[in-house]
């Protein structure tokens, strides 16, 4: 609810302190939420512990009721895989909590080389979440694969972005490597390399960026066409028409052989000239 990490003291500890980690405003919201739960429990003399309340999830797909015994279990996860679980503000961990009855998963602090991961929650939920995490880790150990995505060559430089900022952002977001072919190849294909579980999201993200760029390109073409038309209109509005009287006997000399004379005058002064029929 508050995008924070909440650490409770060990069961055999006499400490009554709960550690909340996150942004200041989020920590304050979590603190108020916990105090409100505590107040309600004291008021109603309910026997459930604060931890039971924090573990409860309305969206749980498992039958983990509040009366289930809360257990703590550990599993080993190679530190190189920790980033996957805690990336994007811990989205994977939030999904696990929603799916498995609010089970809380705690990873070692950033920079730590510990491979010990702690799970807390109802026993059935902890076991299910642990099994799912093992499956995820097995997927992460697979050999990366490469797919190609059709992207118009003229959009490649916009995909890359200024000094590569655009492509780096996508690679970080989707945890893949994106390879744009050299300009001299003028290829319409971009290669994405990564774990199979990441490729589909990366492909969708790349194609979505292509749609945005194409929409921007259409806007630019429309603006260019508008400006070109307006330029023609402005030029026409500046034109005037004037009649002059000339002796009809000199018309032929002005027109010249096959209109050569009159064309020369029009080219020189950028004007249109018409003489009445002889």
UniProtKB/TrEMBL annotation:
Q: Name the source's superkingdom.
A: Eukaryota
Q: Where is the signal peptide?
A: none
Indicate yes or no for the key word Repeat: yes
Print the keywords alphabetically.
Answer: Repeat, RNA-binding
Q: Which SMART domains match?
A: KH
Keyword Repeat present in the record's keywords: the answer is yes
Q: What positions does the domain K Homology occupy?
A: 69-138, 143-211
Could you list the residue ranges that cross the membrane?
none
Q: What is this protein called?
A: Vigilin
């Amino acid at each position: 609810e508050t995008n924070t990490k909440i650490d409770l003291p060990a069961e055999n500890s006499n400490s009554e302190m709960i550690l909340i980690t996150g942004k200041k405003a989020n920590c304050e919201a979590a603190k108020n939420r916990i105090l409100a739960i505590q107040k309600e429990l004291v008021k109603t003399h309910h026997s459930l512990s604060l931890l039971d309340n924090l573990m409860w999830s309305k969206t749980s797909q498992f039958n983990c009721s509040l009366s289930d015994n809360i257990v703590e279990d550990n599993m080993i996860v190679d530190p190189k895989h920790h980033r996957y679980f805690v990336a994007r503000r811990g989205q994977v961990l939030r999904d696990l909590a929603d799916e498995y009855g609010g089970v809380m998963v705690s990873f070692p602090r950033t920079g730590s080389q510990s491979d010990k991961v702690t799970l807390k929650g109802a026993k059935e939920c902890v076991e299910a979440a642990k099994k799912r995490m093992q499956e995820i880790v097995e997927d992460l150990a697979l050999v990366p694969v490469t797919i190609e995505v059709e992207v118009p060559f003229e959009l490649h430089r916009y995909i890359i972005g200024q000094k590569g900022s655009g492509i780096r952002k996508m690679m970080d977001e989707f945890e893949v490597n994106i390879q744009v072919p050299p300009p001299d190849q003028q290829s319409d294909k971009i290669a994405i390399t990564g774990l199979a579980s990441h490729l589909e999201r990366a492909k969708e993200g790349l194609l979505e960026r292509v749609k945005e760029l194409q929409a921007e390109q259409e806007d630019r073409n429309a603006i260019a066409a508008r400006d070109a038309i307006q330029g023609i209109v402005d030029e026409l509005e500046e034109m005037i028409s004037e009649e002059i009287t000339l002796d009809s006997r000199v018309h032929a000399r002005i027109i010249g052989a096959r209109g050569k004379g009159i064309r020369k005058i029009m080219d020189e002064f950028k004007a249109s000239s018409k003489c009445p029929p002889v």
